[in-house]
């Protein structure tokens, strides 16, 4: 039986679009791990700059590599980075939010100051600082985006946790003997999930964008790893001669980032009961005396 939240997600146009595109990217990443139309790293000078046609559906690049195969292989990197950054951001965000909302006053104030300091550093700057020490890699992108958006998640989620903590049902659960950890898992986190989901989807979208941008600048994936950013950097040098080849990786990045953001918005609407209640009220006709 289909879960209720999934049916609600499918009923919204933005959620449906985001779910379809994200599912296609995920399936492509899985399929590309064992099959692509051509070897992504195989060059054939005789087939360089072929236009979109059979069997090269998106054409070839300056060394004769199949662009569709390169994009399919690059989806593995995008999924790996977005999921990895999402996990890191989740752990850091929930830990900081819990410390900033459920502990003693001096700990809460210390965490608040710490979050305010970290939030002043842009994600890309953090990634460049880390890569200057440990070198550019996908793990640099994952940790930079995870830390940057973990702090954002903590900043947004902490006041929501404080608000829910003062609710009657949470106070009743505490009076019944629930520990702070049990209250956090059973009551607090489910009630702040809609806010958390939006921030998490945004962090995953930025992870894809950051990986492409940092790889484009040479701070992300190595040249031997498939990456949409590296492909874009290779092809943009020929944009004046073969502009169509640059469109494909650019569109892929754009649609992936857009889909993750729309999926997050759709999940928020599908899981937030207050939004559904307000939406239902707007459809109730007013009674005219």
From TrEMBL:
Q: Which Gene3D superfamilies match?
A: MetI-like
Q: Which residues cross the membrane?
A: 17-35, 78-99, 111-130, 136-154, 192-219, 239-263
Keyword tags: Cell membrane, Membrane, Transmembrane, Transmembrane helix, Transport
Report the locations given in the UniProt record. Answer: Cell membrane
Keyword set includes Membrane: yes
- Ranges for domain ABC transmembrane type-1 come to 75-264
Q: Which GO terms describe its biological process?
A: transmembrane transport
Q: Which GO terms describe its cellular component?
A: plasma membrane
- Give the protein family: Belongs to the binding-protein-dependent transport system permease family.
Pfam families (alphabetical): BPD_transp_1
Report what the protein is called: Peptide/nickel transport system permease protein
The protein's predominant localisation is membrane
What membrane topology does this protein have? Multi-pass membrane protein
């Amino acid at each position: 039986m289909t879960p209720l939240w999934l049916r609600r997600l499918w009923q919204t146009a933005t959620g449906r679009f985001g779910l379809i595109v994200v599912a296609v990217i995920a399936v492509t990443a899985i399929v590309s791990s064992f099959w692509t139309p051509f070897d992504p790293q195989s060059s054939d000078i005789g087939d360089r700059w072929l236009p979109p046609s059979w069997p090269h559906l998106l054409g070839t690049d300056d060394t004769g590599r199949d662009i569709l195969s390169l994009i399919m292989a690059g989806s593995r990197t995008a999924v790996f980075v977005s999921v990895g950054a999402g996990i890191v951001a989740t752990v850091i965000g929930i830990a900081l939010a819990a410390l900033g909302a459920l502990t003693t006053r001096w700990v809460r104030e210390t965490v608040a100051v710490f979050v305010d300091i970290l939030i002043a550093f842009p994600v890309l700057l953090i990634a460049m600082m880390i890569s200057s020490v440990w070198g550019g890699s996908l793990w640099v992108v994952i940790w930079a985006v995870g830390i940057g958006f973990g702090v954002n998640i903590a900043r947004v989620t902490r006041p929501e946790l404080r608000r829910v903590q003062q609710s009657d049902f949470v106070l009743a659960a505490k009076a019944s003997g629930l520990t702070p950890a049990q209250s956090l898992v059973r009551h607090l986190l489910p009630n702040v999930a809609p806010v958390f989901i939006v921030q998490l989807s945004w962090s995953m979208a930025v992870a894809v964008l950051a990986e492409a941008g940092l790889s484009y600048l040479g701070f992300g994936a190595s040249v031997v790893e498939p990456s949409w950013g590296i492909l874009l950097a290779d092809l943009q040098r020929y944009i004046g001669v073969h502009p169509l080849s640059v469109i494909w990786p650019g569109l892929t990045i754009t649609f992936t980032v857009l889909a993750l953001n729309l999926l997050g918005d759709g999940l928020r609407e599908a899981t937030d009961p207050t939004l559904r209640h307000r939406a239902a009220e707007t459809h109730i006709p007013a009674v005219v005396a």
